[in-house]
């Protein structure tokens, strides 16, 4: 480390490919399987083959890593404060454990401690008092999205912290998580490529970072609007169900009316009796229509809105990571450089003023220590950019989720309209007795499409 102040964001140099591959080993791939480089995520894993910066995963491979269910446990504990508990079930680990919201909070803290340069999704907010059923259900959904994003994230999925959270069934998982984190440094201290991250970065990493950040910001804004509209569509389907149900009940109530007819209406007594008899049974069909509308709305909430929320959570985690990079390691690096400059000026002043040798030696020792701090911060800055580059790739791996969302939306609309159309068609013949035509022949009105087919 020289005495000069370094640029906090120097241009990244590309290392020699021969130097990179000299220390790298990988197990041979299985026969017939695709050749993917093994990505280096932590000190316990072997060195990657080729450039470890590149992610070889597809969306299907990420989704197949695990599927975690988070369900409310009906029983509540505590004499005065009722604690909401969740059953967290992992398909990968074949486990089912009981967790409270505060357990998720400690797990989230441990993830940030272990992986400060990765996308750690945010947790839903905690409401101390007045947590109604709607809030609890919304938080359950958010916790499910959080744990699935974590369980499918390449470095997180291989970390002991995740396995502990999803598998430990002891009485105090929070202390167990904290104990496991003691003496274990963050990813920078455990990743074998951390000190060589600069060698794998492209020369224009700062430009790429700025462009990627702007793209993610635009994606977030667009997907936020899509999620808002999808919520409204699903909500309208459920509201439509309520209206259909009430509509059918009112028809039934009309048919069940027992108010006697006035004397001057007795000539039409048989007509009204027939109408009332027909109206009574219509509530059944409208109840079926309401049920179909509810099913469609719920399906769109689960398959469309939730997937949009999942992707929004991922994009927000990326935005948070960019902010941590700028306010965290980059800011600390710049502060270390500033402090180093002040110490160098103090050294020059002490030399000019012929201070005591002991004071000069102490100052020199502090300068050496500060140079080591700056060197470490510079390495951390490059490793942070290295991780940001990988996290950007990870976001783009998730982008095909858009087609899954659109497919679910289209299928929901097709299935919902098909099922409701069948009920409407079954209902139509039952209306024939409601329409009296000339000479007492009962004929329902024709639709405009039918009229267009009749010759005049």
Largest sheet: 3 strands, antiparallel
Shape: elongated
How many DSSP E strands?
A: 3
**Radius of gyration, whole Å:** 33 Å
Task: Provide the structure class.
Answer: mainly alpha
Give the end-to-end Cα distance, rounded to a whole number of Å: 97 Å
Strand content range = under 5%
Helix content: 55-70%
Order of strands, main sheet, comes to 1-2-3
Q: Give the averaged pLDDT, no decimals.
A: 79
**Total helical elements:** 16
Helix and strand string, N-terminal first?
HHEEEHHHHHHHHHHHHHH
Low-confidence stretches: 1-48, 437-442
List keywords for this structure.
single chain; mainly alpha; 16 helices; 4% strand; disordered N terminus
Q: Please, could you describe this protein's structure?
A:
The chain is built from 16 helices and 3 strands. Residues 1-48 and 437-442 have low confidence and may be disordered. The protein is 62% helix and 4% strand. Helix 3 packs parallel to helix 7, helix 4 (133-152) crosses helix 12 and helix 12 (282-327) packs antiparallel against helix 15. It is mainly alpha-helical. Strands 1-2-3 form a 3-stranded antiparallel β-sheet.
Task: Give the SSE layout.
Layout: H1 17-22, H2 59-63, E1 68-72, E2 85-90, E3 95-100, H3 101-114, H4 133-152, H5 154-157, H6 160-167, H7 173-181, H8 187-190, H9 197-200, H10 205-255, H11 269-280, H12 282-327, H13 329-352, H14 357-398, H15 401-427, H16 448-453
Antiparallel strand pairs: 1-2, 2-3
Helix pairs in contact: 3-7, 4-12, 6-7, 10-11, 10-12, 12-13, 12-14, 12-15, 13-14
